[in-house]
Amino acid sequence: MDRKSSTELAQLIQRFFEEYLPNLRGMSSHTIGSYRDAVVLFLRFLARHVRRRIETLQITDLTAARVEDFLMSLERERGNGITTRNTRLAALHTFARFLAVQRPQQLAQWQVILNVPFKRGARDAPIEHFDSSELDAFFRSIDRQSACGVRDYALFALMFNSGARVQEILNLHTQDLRLESPYQVRLHGKGNKVRLCPLWPATVKCLRAHLEQQTRIHADSDDTRLFRNRNGEPLTRFGVRYLLRKYVAAGAAKAATLRSKRLHPHSMRHTTALSLLKSGVDFATISQWLGHSALNVTMRYARSDIDLKRTALSQVFPDAIAPPKAGRLRIDGAELISWLRRL
């Protein structure tokens, strides 16, 4: 970007991403990518709102009222949940704090933006995930005879195996894989933390097929990124979302329950966590597997799965869900109380 010909807002945005976030704040590439997405969405909304092109937007166009309208549009137009809404707002708050230092003469304007509150109720939303039949239908809908199908199957198999965040998967290079025993993948998570995740033999087989095919198709490329699109460029999160929706729609023909769910790429991570939990893996191991910052983040999965609740209920109160006894009910005091307790 040519700073001489760019607007003041464009120069500040460039400084925000090139200097402030990586150098002064020391934020990871994952966080910077999330902030970038929030700013891009906000700029697009702002351009539509003021009916000007993005490159002509001015710093005075940033107001608290427009931030609030933007947040409402995320929920109404894009169908985002409260968690996503609050994540976008957190990025704009950080940008407003940066502007307060860079342009203190407009401090009042930035303070009003910082006073836009986060929305409560994010924890009430259920965790959307695939159940076993839905996951089977999803993978069976991928055509593994095609070049794209081989890549896509390996992509989602690795996502389910590792429970990694989408960006962690997309940032992988071929050297991050160990496809000889012991099979494992090296993931770079939030806060630049590195963790190792074991791989199933079935996942390794898919990855080997994908790498052999990718070597043939992109033989002239110097990029060792594990997953790339048809043009040889790194696959994006938006591309993964498109692919997931495509295969969910196709899988709905075999598992009708997929039609009523709002699944997204992060749902695969939720599916991994719940699958591990149902298999009897302890919370501490799951927390390390997923790269959670604290154990209480992992504990939310215990509150979300209905099968786990049914199992707990049957173990603690077996009579509560037992089938009624055959025969005629004798209405005396002791039998009546026993009958009522079984309702």
Write the layout of secondary structure elements.
Layout: H1 8-24, H2 29-50, H3 64-76, H4 82-102, H5 107-114, H6 132-140, H7 147-162, H8 166-170, E1 177-178, E2 184-188, E3 194-198, H9 201-217, H10 237-251, H11 265-278, H12 283-290, H13 295-304, H14 306-316, H15 333-341
Antiparallel strand pairs: 1-2, 2-3
Helix pairs in contact: 1-4, 2-4, 3-4, 4-5, 6-10, 7-9, 7-11, 12-13
Could you please describe the fold and organization of this structure?
By secondary structure, the chain is mainly alpha-helical. The chain folds into 3 domains: 8-124, DNA polymerase, domain 1 (Orthogonal Bundle), CATH 1.10.150; 132-304, Intergrase catalytic core (hpI Integrase, Chain A), CATH 1.10.443; 315-343, no CATH class. It contains 15 helices and 3 strands. It has helices at 8-24, 29-50, 64-76, 82-102, 107-114, 132-140, 147-162, 166-170, 201-217, 237-251, 265-278, 283-290, 295-304, 306-316, 333-341; strands at residues 177-178, 184-188, 194-198. It has a 3-stranded antiparallel sheet with strand order 1-2-3, with no helix packed on it. A hairpin with a 5-residue loop joins strand 1 (177-178) and strand 2. The longest helix has 22 residues, at 29-50. The protein starts with 7 loop residues before the first helix and ends with a helix.
Inertia-based shape:
globular
What structural category characterises the helix and strand content? mainly alpha
If you compute it from the alpha carbons, what radius of gyration comes out, rounded to the nearest whole angstrom? 25 Å
**What's the SSE pattern?**
HHHHHHHHEEEHHHHHHH
Low-confidence stretches: 320-324
Q: Could you name the CATH topology of the largest domain?
A: hpI Integrase, Chain A
The domain count comes to: 3
Quick one: biggest sheet? Answer: 3 strands, antiparallel
Quote the distance from N terminus to C terminus: 70 Å
Report the mean per-residue pLDDT as an integer: 85
Strand order, biggest sheet?
1-2-3
Q: What's the total helix number? A: 15
Which band does the percent of strand residues land in?
under 5%
Number of strands: 3
What's the CATH architecture of the largest domain?
Answer: Orthogonal Bundle
* Name of the top-level CATH class of the largest domain: Mainly Alpha
| Helical coverage, percent range | 55-70%
Q: CATH superfamily of the largest domain, called what?
A: Intergrase catalytic core
